[in-house]
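Example 3.2
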Amino acid sequence: MPVKSDIEIAQSAVMKPIEEIASSIGIGRENIELYGNYKAKVNYNLLKDLKDREDGKLILVSAISPTPAGEGKTTTSVGLGDALKRIGKKTMIALREPSLGPVFGIKGGAAGGGYAQVIPMEDINLHFTGDIHAIGAANNLLAAMLDNHIYQSNSLGIDTRRITWKRCIDMNDRQLRSIVSGLNGKVNGVPREDGFDITVASEVMAVLCLSRDLEDLKDRLRKIVVGYTRDEKPVTAGDLKAEGAMAALLKDALKPNLVQTLEHTPTFIHGGPFANIAHGCNSVMATRMALKLADYVVTEAGFGADLGAEKFIDIKCRTAGLKPDAVVIVATVRALKHHGGVSKDMYAVEDLEALEKGMPNLLKHIENIKIKFGLPAVVAINRFPTDTEKELDYIKERCKEYNVNAVVSEVWAKGGEGAVELAHEVVRLINEGENKFRFMYPDEMPIKEKIETIVREIYGGDGVDYAPAALKEISNLEKLGYGNLPVCIAKTQYSFSDDPKKLGWPKNFRITVRNVKVSAGAGFVVILTGDIMTMPGLPKIPSAEKIDVDADGRISGLF
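Structure, written as tokens:
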């Protein structure tokens, strides 16, 4: 019997009306806005009514450094949520919205996989409720108002050579990375160098995800720095009087989106910042609301724990006053073999030597979570059919070096049933584990020291090299009062270093910081390292070539 694809499994599921899902966690019809029968926006003012309710337990799902072999972090998050529900725990899941760029690019969909999915997966992976479009519109409104101000006499004295704000589009489009705009005469604007970011890397996305409420959203939008004057003073969205109109575009996008898993576990999917070029977590509002509505909340942070989990802790938790109760680190035998130097065509062959070579990547992530951040952790081995018992036992034995249990997870094939053992271990950790939660650095630490602390402690690097432009900008930002902000390091997700070819747990490397920019509205300083880009490109054979829709509107090719 042929194995069903993710989309075939999702399309054969029987969904419950979203009012029923909302009612199961105590959300009344008066607090939801329906987007069809199976999606809803939840009124953000519900948080005010829930403010005195005790928070549930927060479970963060992270992973080893990503590989082409796949790790299954979202799939594990969904399966774990379903498993917690199966063992009688009132559970919610809180995830990010997929970006159209990766959906049509190399990654495909991002709503889980197999029998551990969030549905309706086609809607979630495509336009969903329009949040990302609204973010793009708000971003580009600010860009239009900025250029219009320059065209209409430039009373603020903006230096067109020092404009930092880019336009955005939610698509992988390398052609738009660096452009020249305003050509063909004075009536069409002022010619200048320009460019596009992918929408999920926009500061507006980060602002929406970190905002506590609508007033906080407006305040953060007001603080966004779009460029500098000729005498090097920052120009903000507030200076352009843009924050009100931007907030008007975002007022519905700020409301968390409620959907369900294949097993009808209530799930918020809200916000979608990348974790290598942004902070990589779902919205603060969705997380805080879930914690008030459920006893256990499963959330995830993008890419490996060196990126998503570090930013979840040092940016999101710091901003929102959150504290994880346990962390799940996802790994696969195949991915660890990849870190050990094995080619894709050999993943299915038992190879303990390659596993041994790749294992240090997992061990470093465990060290970071348990030792550096002081959090109780469990490893979830996302099982593939070709994994052997010897390979699984080897991973379990090595994890004991940090007194961490490794549990086999089979959520792709079995849904929540495949993560019951993992769910019990997570509950045990929350009840019995030692939680000495700490940030990686204090607010008052200078920017360079923050960067170097993360490089040394989290990445295991020897130090940091700075381009002259980066040093100058760090000095300027500290003079302007931005030195107390956390740092958001943008680097490759494939390695602890800034070189994607250095797999495993590399040694004797340094990180190169080529540029720095402030995201004052989001409340962090972005550190650009290596060759990282804020606008991805499509691969040689993009996933878009496989996606189609039939005469009845039924979509195929999403995975």
